[in-house]
Recover the amino acids of this structure.
């Protein structure tokens, strides 16, 4: 596993582990801004790259990522390392952007049942590939009891408002909608909101979600 990147107070009670999406590393401006906003909200955010992304950064290779299921072990190892380095008494949340959130979601129930985490955060969950609305990636979500927050753009091509409403997601999953947002939560200029507005909304929703998770521990 690659080096960890920590943003926010080191002594925070809540640690949020974030993995990036398939197209950009943990150091992307988008990931950096989200981590900064969450740090300002009092969370300690720990970012990491999957090995394929670390190799891409090091060599410039554009090899596609492995299947999400093949990355669960890497997320498990990252969580174990971060938990050990953070020490006892912390509340751990896991998640990521797009692919990173999907991988986290695939391991979340087992991590939650083992009391290793208290919640899951997905930023732009890829409910299906673009233009393939019937190729759903929701089967494992339907039985999820781990508290979950999905922050989704209203017009995300991987699953927008009208589509997600039909998925029958369980009560454990809350969805916060970024106004007119795309897969990066970015709105159109005509919407009257900015990307910064939507990222600030996302950070606020995540901070409140962390507080709710802390109350149930």
């Amino acid at each position: 596993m690659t080096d960890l990147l920590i943003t926010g107070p080191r002594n925070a009670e809540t640690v949020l582990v974030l993995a990036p999406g398939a197209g950009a590393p943990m150091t992307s401006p988008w990931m950096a801004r989200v981590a900064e906003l969450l740090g300002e909200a009092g969370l300690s955010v720990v970012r990491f790259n999957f090995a394929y992304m670390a190799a891409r950064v090091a060599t410039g290779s554009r090899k596609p990522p492995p299947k999400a299921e093949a990355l669960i072990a890497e997320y498990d190892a990252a969580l174990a390392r971060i938990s050990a380095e953070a020490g006892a008494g912390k509340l751990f949340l896991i998640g990521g952007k797009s692919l990173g959130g999907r991988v986290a979601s695939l391991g979340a129930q087992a991590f939650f049942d083992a009391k290793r985490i208290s919640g899951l955060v997905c930023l732009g969950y890829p409910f299906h590939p673009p233009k393939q609305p019937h190729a759903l990636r929701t089967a494992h979500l339907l039985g999820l009891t781990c508290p979950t927050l999905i922050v989704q753009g209203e017009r995300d091509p991987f699953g927008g408002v009208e589509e997600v409403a039909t998925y029958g997601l369980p009560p454990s999953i809350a969805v916060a909608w970024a106004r007119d947002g795309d897969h990066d939560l970015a709105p159109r200029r005509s919407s009257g909101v900015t990307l910064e507005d939507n990222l600030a909304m996302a950070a606020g929703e995540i901070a409140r979600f962390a507080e709710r998770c802390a109350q149930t521990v």
Q: What stands out?
A: The CA atoms of residues 21 and 99 lie 5 Å apart. The mean pLDDT is 96. The two ends are 29 Å apart (CA to CA).
